[in-house]
Design goal:
The chain is mainly alpha-helical and 341 residues long. The chain contains 18 helices and 2 strands. The protein starts with 7 loop residues before the first helix and ends with a helix.
Length: 341
């Protein structure tokens, strides 16, 4: 085959057809990754083709995620740190029609947040807002028809878990105030009895993380960043497993009970999974040391609302805080009494 480069002629030819074939994807991949660098012009071309062509070969999704993850994460300066400008560029192109439209766009966002060492908080909140839309209005949500309204599915649980605990999320491995507020918004909008079994545990641990975990995540050493880059290069051919491993069920909201993205290890190797387990252990250790101060207590009271009826998830949260926080501010005494804890 003749040497292929990502020229505007190639992009224009594909755009004119309105169809991306398997051969087109092969030509694009060869051109984009020929020099092992995805630059801004190439990223713009990939976004353009995704938006201009309604019919795409299944291989397009993997290329789309690979190329744009490389650009936003590994070509960033410094590598692994997504800037405010780059995050806005990504959001603007994903939401050029005002929303996340399909699984490939969702997969790209999750992949960037997962592999990056740091991302602006607006990036993870952008996806969390899409999850909230799916819960409130499933028939018109970005991911298509998802069943009954006001129900948090197992897929929603796994998306939220991935977002708020990703190293590249707004708070790193901690949960920010804006993320915690969105968690409460999701909980308030849902019907507890209908939610996926894993929602209560995620809600309780996420809010407790926000209230009790020391803020901030350590910056990655240069050697660690190089290792992450090498791991991604080895595994980027399996990026497309993100939704295939759960049978495309994120799009339908149907994830088999007992299976999670952690279990299928869609993002990486056993070493990556073990690293997540170490992070969870550190989180549990930190939770036993952090007190809840006055400002945090006031926020929690405002979110739970003393004049209302405690939801089961709110009751579980208060019990967790009572059992694990070394010191709870007296302002929470009334809430704890109401919960009979």
């Amino acid at each position: 085959m003749a040497d292929v480069s990502l020229s505007m002629n190639l992009v224009e030819e594909i755009t004119a057809k309105g169809v991306i074939t398997a051969q087109d994807v092969s030509d694009l991949r060869q051109g984009v990754f020929k020099d092992s660098i995805v630059d801004k012009e190439e990223a713009e071309a990939v976004f353009h083709l995704d938006q201009a062509c309604k019919t795409k070969d299944p291989s397009w999704t993997q290329f789309y995620v690979d190329a744009l993850t490389d650009y936003f994460v590994w070509q960033a300066k410094p590598a692994g740190y997504v800037s405010e400008e780059q995050a806005q560029f990504l959001i603007d192109n994903i939401a050029c029609d005002g929303r996340i439209d399909d699984a490939s766009e969702l997969e790209l966002l999750l992949n960037v947040i997962h592999w990056a060492m740091s991302c602006p908080e607006d990036l993870s909140l952008f996806v969390l807002e899409a999850v909230r839309e799916a819960v409130l209005s499933p028939k018109t949500a970005a991911f298509g028809f998802r069943g009954a309204p006001a129900v948090i599915t197992a897929a929603d649980v796994e998306i939220v878990r991935t977002l708020i605990y990703a190293g590249g999320s707004g708070g790193g491995f901690t949960v920010t105030r804006r993320e915690a507020d969105l968690m409460f918004d999701l909980n308030d909008a849902s019907r507890p009895a209908k939610n996926a079994p894993g929602w209560q545990d995620l809600f309780v641990k996420a809010i407790a993380n926000h209230l009790m975990f020391p803020r901030g995540a350590p910056e990655a050493a240069e050697a660690e960043e190089v290792l992450r880059r090498e791991t991604w290069l080895k595994e980027r051919g399996t990026v497309g497993r993100l939704f295939k491993e759960i049978g495309g069920s994120v799009a339908s909201g149907d994830v088999p009970v007992g299976r999670s993205w952690h279990e299928v290890d869609v993002f990486g190797s056993t070493a990556a999974r073990e690293e997540r387990e170490r992070e969870e252990t550190q989180l549990r250790d930190a939770l036993t040391r952090e007190a809840i101060d006055e400002e945090e207590a006031k926020w929690l009271i405002g979110r739970i609302r003393l004049d209302g009826v405690l939801q089961p998830n709110e009751h579980a949260l208060l019990k967790f805080l009572k059992d694990n926080a070394p010191n709870v501010h007296p302002l929470l005494d009334r809430l704890l009494a109401k919960a009979a804890i």
